[in-house]
Amino acid sequence: MKLSEYSTNKTEEIKELFTKVFSDSEGESEGLLIGKLVHQLMTGTSDQDLYGFTAVENEKILGSIFFSKLTFESGVNAFLLSPVAVDTKYQRKGVGQKLIDFGLNQLKEDGVGLVFTYGDIKFYSKVGFSIIAEEVVKAPFTLSYPEGWLGQSLVSDEVESIVGDSSCVEAFSDPKLW
Ligand SMILES: CC(C)(COP(=O)(O)OP(=O)(O)OC[C@H]1O[C@@H](n2cnc3c(N)ncnc32)[C@H](O)[C@@H]1OP(=O)(O)O)[C@@H](O)C(=O)NCCC(=O)NCCS
Fold first, then answer.
1. 74 CA distance to ligand 1 centroid (A)?
2. What is the total count of domains within the chain?
3. Cα(129) to centroid(ligand 1), Å
4. Probe ligand 1: pick from 53, 91, 127, max atoms within 8 Å of CB?
5. Ligand 1 pocket, 119 CB below 6 A?
């Protein structure tokens, strides 16, 4: 399996992967929503604000992950991990964890200090994330599931509190996603 930056001529295949995986796990309407979100991320985000990676085997994309810029008034260098998907037939074989580790290493090499995500602590705690209180680090929108606001520092042991508001890239600027 080869992990690498996604190639822009695979945009449609990546959109299809996310649509299929999220349709399988959360139903068709969620699949369509996430497929559209990923397409918007790839086509509507400036290069310096987006990282996307794929796991490929025999020319087939088995999994993919995106990190997009999270902007804080204080200027800290932070990204949001979302979304990540592994082909339904290849789940629970470690592909998801490898994609996340690979992505976090690339971001760290580029000097990114903090990564946040919004999801299931049971899964994300295995790759270094802990629950972050909204008072400690503000999410861009009010969270419908505050226990899912997670973060990790790539440069120290813990996430220190950040003063001020945060904002996300256009593709995530929809309160319904939060
Ligand atoms: C979540 C996802 C990316 C994980 O990828 P994966 O390749 O299946 O994960 P791994 O094999 O690396 O899993 C590592 C561990 O995470 C946990 N895990 C995996 N999928 C999980 C899930 N859906 N819920 C809770 N924990 C999960 C398991 O504990 C697993 O360890 P175990 O097999 O030893 O019990 C993948 O299952 C997926 O695409 N799911 C549907 C889409 C989704 O929910 N994406 C995440 C939100 S953006």
1. 33
2. 1
3. 14
4. 91
5. yes
The predicted-structure confidence for 148-171, as pLDDT tens digits, reads as follows 999 999 999 999 999 999 999 999
Residue 98: predicted pLDDT = 98
**Structural domain includes residue 174:** no
Which residues lie closer than 8 Å to 55 by C-beta, 6 or more apart? 1, 2, 3, 61, 62, 63, 64, 86, 95, 98, 99
User: Is any ligand 1 atom within 6 A of the Cβ of residue 4?
Assistant: no
At residue 21, the pLDDT reads 98
Does some domain include residue 73? yes
What is the distance in A from the centroid of ligand 1 to the CA of 125?
Answer: 11
Closest ligand 1 atom to 63 CA: 39
Domain of 165 in residue numbering reads as: 2-169
Please name the residue that has the structure tokens 């996300």. Answer: 168
3-state secondary structure of 118: strand
Kindly report the CATH number assigned to the domain that includes residue 98: 3.40.630.30
- Within a domain: 36: yes
pTM for the model stands at 0.95
Asked if the structure places residue 177 within a domain, the reply is no
Which H or E element spans position 34?
A: helix 28-44
